Amino acid sequence: MNVAVISDIHANLPALEAVLSAIDDVGVDEIWCLGDAVGYGADPERCLELISERCDVCLSGNHDLAALGEIEIASFSTSAATAALWTRETLGDEGLDLLAGLGETAVEREGIGLFHASPRDPVWEYVIDTDQAEDCLNAQEQRVALIGHSHIALYFTRMDEISRLSSELASDGTDLTMNRGQWLANPGSVGQPRDGDPRAAWMDLETESMRAGFHREDYPIDLAAEAIREAGLPDHLADRLFQGH
Ligand code: ZN
User: If we measure between CA atoms, which residue out of 112, 177, 180, 181 comes closest to residue 141?
Assistant: First the structure.
């Protein structure tokens, strides 16, 4: 099965449209979304509609749950908390229903573990260093797990529990074959990349061979930034889109 994996859209409609268009050019059987449809960006309703229409798996992320009022936003940065409250107030009943209708924060599909944040803490843990990744690989039931949340396209792998773990950032064009050993991979963020490449990120995966490819798409960042400013959301949420961190 050919799958496109997306994550962390964050209500960035121009980025989501660019990625869906690239996915349609390739042609896939399913689209899996690892969560955070909303938060930070200015088009939550339309993004939720598109994700609900197009994705076969839609996980909930911490920003989705925060906008619903289902988790505390005390640990959010000020701008993230502002955006969560703005999203809650801005979404109509239909949008709130779509948000509430997103799935769990963790599921298994085709034998692959899908988590918003991490296998041992699907809501909050940022997996960005090798010690954490090692603990996650020890905790995860599946040989291969896909995660979002950090907004950094990367992967961790080791042959088995006694082998040394290796980690790599996954820039545009990175290809992997995850057919042996243990893996934890993050496709990167569609709507708010934080790995220095401001282009929208996604990953394709062929589930029999377990070959995966990391992709980045140009999109009109100025439109997404303008929408954030017009919505009255914090300016730096617009500025950071151009920097990709
Ligand atoms: Zn996120």
Answer: 112
